[in-house]
Design brief:
With 52 residues, the chain is an all-alpha fold. The chain has a domain of 34 residues. It contains two helices and no strands. The two termini are 25 Å apart.
């Protein structure tokens, strides 16, 4: 039987400020990172077989 899922903790104080700042100002993604992600996606897409 599955265990119950715990509630997500609420961020407060410095953690909340840091999280809000990172969400408002995400770091730029390089072209190399985009290409690497696309390559991995295509590899997984090629081996995936979802039959319903």
């Amino acid at each position: 039987m599955a265990r119950p899922i715990k509630e997500t903790p609420v961020l407060t104080g410095k953690d909340a400020k840091r999280f809000a700042e990172k969400m408002a100002n995400p770091r730029p993604v390089t072209k190399e990172e985009v290409e690497a992600a696309k390559k991995v996606y295509e590899k997984f897409k090629a081996i995936a077989s979802f039959t319903l």
